[in-house]
């Protein structure tokens, strides 16, 4: 527990999902249990605390995204016993079944914020509707099933630092509940308008809203909240907060999406909000710019009035209301807003709390008149139920839906995977150039493949499923094991592999049209295939490995075709020439170290000939349609992969017993001047070349 100022103490824990969860319940029940555990966390941590969930993203670190839970406890309530109770609840309670929570002695990552240029904050949608002067801070309509996967997916695509912060502070000070009276007086005035027959389309919405406030807020555990993104640019903050709103809230009739307020460094609220983030406190400096200062001091009874009709005016020039309301509601509000009406002696008097239980309060038969500004705190308050859609610890791993035993799947990180397992690629000279890591299985163990044993591959998947990223991962490992090896790429999209031609021109050659592909096929046939066959004959050996043992320094060559459908659509003569060579390489490429990776979004017999398909003994199939899945791997496994599970694929080996899932890692590539080679895994190739 670290002291961060004279009044408060800070407890910080890093949160990491456990690799596997063994449970005999059905997947839906397990998800429900995880959701309920997170909902209960807010309530069980107790009062007088500030709780902050932080998603901290740095594209230059590994892993790029880390999650922290910070707890700020006031000095006057901080004891060793309380601290241990909080730690035990978090590290040994129900939450620990799903996550590993590790106490952090140093939280500089949460407090070194000099890089922040912009702050965006989510606030309840609030509006002042004129001329009625209705003030509406709309309730959050939480989506309790939000798992933050979509938000984390967006964050992982950013190129700059960002912190997403969801902070809650328990609100239980009766001396600050002037809004209780204000709610009741607002509701009384709205009831008057309703009874007067005034036609107003917004009246019923406003009335229902304040009835919800009156029914729930005075008796609920409430929190002040702060939901904000601290970023280097507004674009990143905006897209993350918009995605959070989309998935943390539900769409309802007559509802309003929360607002996003933007604050630059020049705004005084920026510094105050940034300081609150460092201290794990709530700052209310950022507010809705549409708040009307000219009416905030108006009495509710004056600001919210029925329309005046002829001589039946419901208010005079002084703004006072008539002695008695013109109706009697069957379910009267807690307190009437008419300060001259007879009090209902059976109603509770929350205004006693506002006046601190003073003698004046006991003698007074009516609450003090409330102003519009007394309702303003509502936009910064939320019940535990409202906020639960936002306060979510991400479950970034997919939960399998086929098995009765559900697992939180590991997310493979290319940097970590290469660091931990690159020794598998370097066991000895014979295997050094022959292996690569496909990814990790659902138990977190590496899945290894061999170019020597399986020369050709089919890679399939719909756009966005992870196909191109996987190719980059394979290319990286191929060049690491074959520093002078050649890679030929038919990239008909023309954009996915340009960085390779720029940074590794001696190794990589790229063509982008089908016409160029025909020339490339003949070049590979002459310079690679025929040359290698000749070397095998001269050395009187049968394969590249035996050729190496004879002292010939030769490395493998890789030919990648992305996308195969473009070849299928080529003129028949051109198509026939390319496919003839493909079949030849597919049949004889193993022995001479020439390997083909055939990629397509929609694999079918019209795109891939049976001979080529049969020669691809390893198939890596990302999410595809049901028909495609059954055609390639003869099961529906690939069609069942979730959209959110990017990088997850089915690995099929010809002659293997079963098809297994594999989680392929995300590998960052250089991007212009934003992401340099030395900041990525590709730096290992730069130093080897």
- Measured by DSSP, the beta-strand proportion falls in 15-25%
Helix/strand-derived category reads alpha+beta
Low-pLDDT residue intervals, each spanning 5 or more residues: 1-7, 19-26, 310-364, 396-407, 428-432
Radius of gyration: 33 Å
Query: Count of helical segments?
Result: 23
Total strands: the figure is: 22
Describe the main β-sheet briefly: 10 strands, antiparallel
Distance between the termini: 48 Å
What number is the mean pLDDT? 78
| Helix content percent band | 25-40%
User: How would you describe the shape?
Assistant: elongated
Please explain how this structure is put together:
The protein has about 700 residues and is of the alpha+beta class. It is about 35% helix and about 20% strand. The chain is built from 23 helices and 22 strands. Helix 4 packs antiparallel against helix 7 and helix 5 (about 180-195) packs antiparallel against helix 6. The two termini are about 50 Å apart. The relative contact order is 0.11. Mean pLDDT is about 80; it is low at about 1-5, about 20-25, about 310-365, about 395-405 and about 430.
What's the helix and strand layout?
Elements: E1 2-3, E2 8-17, H1 27-44, E3 50-57, E4 65-74, H2 80-92, E5 99-103, H3 108-111, E6 118-123, E7 126-129, E8 134-137, H4 149-156, E9 162-171, H5 178-195, H6 203-216, E10 222-231, H7 234-248, E11 259-264, H8 268-279, H9 300-303, H10 351-354, H11 359-363, E12 381-383, H12 384-387, H13 414-421, H14 429-432, E13 435-440, E14 446-450, E15 457-460, H15 467-481, E16 486-491, H16 498-503, E17 508-511, H17 514-539, H18 544-549, E18 557-562, H19 564-568, H20 572-592, E19 594-600, H21 610-615, E20 618-621, H22 626-633, E21 648-653, E22 660-663, H23 683-688
Parallel strand pairs: 15-19, 15-20, 16-17, 16-18, 18-19
Antiparallel strand pairs: 1-2, 2-4, 2-5, 3-4, 3-9, 6-10, 6-11, 7-8, 9-10, 10-12, 13-14, 20-21, 21-22
Helix pairs in contact: 4-7, 5-6, 17-20
């Amino acid at each position: 527990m670290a002291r961060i100022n004279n009044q408060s103490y800070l407890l910080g824990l890093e949160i990491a999902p456990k690799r596997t969860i063994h449970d005999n319940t059905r997947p839906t029940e397990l998800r429900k249990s995880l959701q309920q555990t997170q909902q209960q966390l807010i309530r069980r941590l107790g009062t007088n605390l500030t709780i902050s969930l932080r998603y901290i993203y740095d594209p230059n670190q590994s892993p790029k995204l880390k999650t922290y839970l910070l707890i700020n406890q006031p000095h006057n309530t901080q004891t060793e016993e309380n601290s241990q109770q909080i730690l035990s609840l978090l590290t040994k309670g129900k939450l620990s079944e799903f996550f590993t929570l590790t106490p952090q002695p140093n939280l500089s990552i949460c407090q070194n914020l000099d890089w922040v240029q912009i702050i965006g904050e989510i606030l309840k949608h609030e509006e002042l509707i004129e001329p009625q002067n209705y003030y509406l801070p709309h309730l959050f309509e939480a989506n309790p099933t939000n798992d933050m996967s979509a938000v984390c997916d967006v964050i992982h695509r950013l190129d700059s630092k960002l912190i997403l912060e969801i902070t809650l502070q328990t609100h239980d000070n009766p001396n600050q509940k002037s809004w209780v009276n204000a709610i009741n007086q607002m509701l009384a005035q709205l009831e008057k308008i309703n009874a007067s027959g005034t036609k107003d389309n917004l009246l019923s919405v406003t009335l229902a809203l304040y009835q919800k406030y009156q029914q729930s807020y005075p008796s609920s555990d409430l929190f002040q909240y702060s939901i904000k993104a601290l970023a280097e640019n507004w674009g990143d903050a905006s897209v993350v907060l918009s995605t959070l709103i989309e998935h943390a809230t539900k769409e309802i009739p007559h509802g309003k999406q929360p607002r996003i307020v933007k604050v630059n460094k020049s705004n005084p609220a920026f510094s105050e909000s940034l300081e609150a983030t460092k201290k794990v406190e709530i700052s209310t400096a950022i507010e809705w710019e549409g708040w009307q200062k000219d009416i905030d001091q108006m009495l509710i009874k004056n600001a919210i009035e029925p329309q005046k009709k002829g001589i039946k005016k419901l208010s005079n020039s002084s703004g006072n209301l008539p002695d008695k309301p013109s109706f009697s509601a069957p379910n009267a509000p807690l307190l009437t807003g008419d300060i001259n009406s007879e009090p209902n002696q059976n109603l509770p008097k929350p205004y006693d709390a506002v006046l601190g239980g003073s003698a004046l309060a006991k003698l007074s038969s009516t609450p003090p008149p409330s102003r519009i500004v007394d309702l303003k705190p509502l936009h910064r308050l939320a019940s535990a139920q409202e906020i639960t859609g936002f306060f979510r610890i991400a479950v970034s791993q997919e939960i399998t839906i086929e098995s009765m035993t559900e697992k939180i799947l590991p997310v493979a990180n290319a940097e970590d995977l290469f660091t931990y397992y690159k020794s598998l690629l370097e066991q000895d000279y014979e295997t050094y150039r022959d292996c690569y890591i496909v990814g990790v299985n659902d138990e977190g163990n590496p899945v290894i493949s061999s170019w020597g044993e399986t020369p050709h591959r089919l890679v399939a998947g719909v756009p966005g499923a992870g196909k191109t990223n996987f190719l980059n991962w394979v290319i990286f490992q191929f060049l690491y094991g074959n520093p002078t090896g050649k890679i030929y790429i038919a990239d008909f999209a023309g954009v996915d592999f340009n960085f390779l031609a720029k940074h590794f021109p001696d190794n990589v050659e790229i063509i982008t049209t089908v016409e160029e592909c025909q020339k490339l096929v003949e070049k590979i046939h002459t310079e690679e295939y025929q040359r290698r066959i000749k070397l095998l004959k001269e050395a009187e050996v049968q394969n590249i490995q035996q050729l190496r043992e004879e002292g010939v320094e030769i490395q493998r060559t890789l030919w990648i075709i992305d996308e195969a459908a473009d070849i299928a659509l080529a003129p028949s003569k051109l198509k026939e020439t390319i496919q003839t060579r493909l079949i030849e390489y597919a049949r004889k490429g193993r022995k001479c170290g020439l390997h083909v990776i055939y990629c397509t979004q929609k694999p079918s017999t019209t795109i891939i000939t049976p001979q080529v398909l049969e020669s691809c003994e390893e198939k890596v199939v990302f999410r595809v349609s049901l028909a495609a899945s059954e055609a390639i791997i003869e099961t529906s496994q690939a069609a069942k992969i979730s959209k959110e599970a990017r990088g997850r694929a089915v690995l099929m080996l010809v002659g293997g017993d079963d098809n297994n899932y594999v989680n392929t890692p995300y590998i960052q590539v250089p991007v212009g001047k934003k992401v340099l080679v030395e900041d990525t895994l590709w730096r290992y190739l730069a130093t080897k070349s």
